[in-house]
Amino acid sequence: WGEGMEDASSAFLLRDYDEVIDQRFNAKMLSDSASYVTKRASVQLLSTVLLTRSNYAVMMKYISSRRNLITVMFLLRDPSPHITLDAFHVFKVFVANPDKPPEVVKILVDNKEKLVRYLDGLHRDREVGDEQFRDEKALVIATLEGLEL
Questions:
Q1: Which residue ranges run through the membrane (predicted)?
Q2: pTM for the whole thing?
């Protein structure tokens, strides 16, 4: 992809944000009828979109939403370890945001103890061989522990 294509896709995502994010991604990720493949592909694509530099404005809009945070927190509880790992990569962006809106902070603070306990046990087996994951998880936990209203 060239820079022009990234700019065009970012402009499209911003212009059609509600349809693409709410009606496509969130609906597919939360649907009980969605297949594992659909759900996993949706979370992976969302993670890629949010972490692509040219989509910064899209990422900021996404992580400023209370509803999106709740969606990702539900995905963290999915029975599939692959989906929970992909959801973690989206969740960490919410936590790392230095300008969290008050409604996002409130959800994180209200659920802090449960989130820290859950994240502490998340993919323990992966920590041994994946230093980046271990470090990111520790940073997310430390950031959550430091959050206050």
A1: none
A2: 0.88
Residue 106, token pair as written in the block = 């409130």
* Torsion angle of C-alpha atoms 11, 16, 17, 20, degrees rounded to 10: -120
Summarize pLDDT for 91-133 with one digit per residue, the tens: 999 999 999 999 999 999 999 999 999 999 998 888 888 999 9
Query: Which domains does the chain carry?
Result: 3-146 (1.25.10.10)
Q: How is residue 36 written in tokens?
A: 């594992």
Query: How far is CA 32 from each of CA 17, 18, 38, 70, 126, rounded to the nearest angstrom?
Result: 23, 21, 11, 16, 28
Nearest Cα to Cα of residue 16 among 29, 5, 25:
25
At 55-85, the pLDDT tens digits run: 999 999 999 999 999 999 999 999 999 999 9
**C-alpha to C-alpha distance for 74 and 101, rounded to whole angstroms:** 20
CA-wise closest residue to 61 among 104, 29, 118, 1 = 104
**How many Å apart are CA 30 and CA 90, to the nearest integer?**
15
Give the 3-state secondary structure of residue 54: helix
